Amino acid sequence: MKFSQKSEAGVRLLVGLARHYDQGPLSLAEIARSEDLSQTFLEQVIMPLRKGGFVRSYQGVRGGYELARAPHEIGMGPVMRVLESSLAPMFCVTDAPDRDVCAFEEHCSTRVLWARVRDGINAALDATTLADLLDEPSVDSYQPSAVSYQPLRMLVPSTCGDYQPAD
Known about the structure:
Layout: H1 5-19, H2 28-35, H3 39-51, E1 55-58, E2 64-67, H4 76-84, H5 111-126, H6 130-135
Antiparallel strand pairs: 1-2
Helix pairs in contact: 1-2, 1-3, 1-4, 4-5
């Protein structure tokens, strides 16, 4: 799955605000400069983050934006769901009520795989906070947690709706 430029910019915008947490609002121009992003693009990206309750805006000469909560209280799962609307790798496993219906849906042999990928993406994002992104000095030092993958059982559910993620 590939995330959009909007999500990339939104996360970088939040990281910029997190670095400045509890020091007052920052203008989009300051964030754009520090994160090497387009201010015009950030003006579009900030709106869903504000509506989602992740940032607050202030008017006036010293106005700008700041985080609505502490970085450790902002989960990346909810952020990404606001920015992307769906984190499903295939439309057949999205929660959208108006999603397209696949011709193979009733007898699809790969739908369980896509549901597991969706759940893995959601679990990884839900396990990460904005503060985690501040604490991580580089991707080279990142150590993945030990994940135990369970092999697919021989009797797979007949529909994706029967699939339940492992706890």
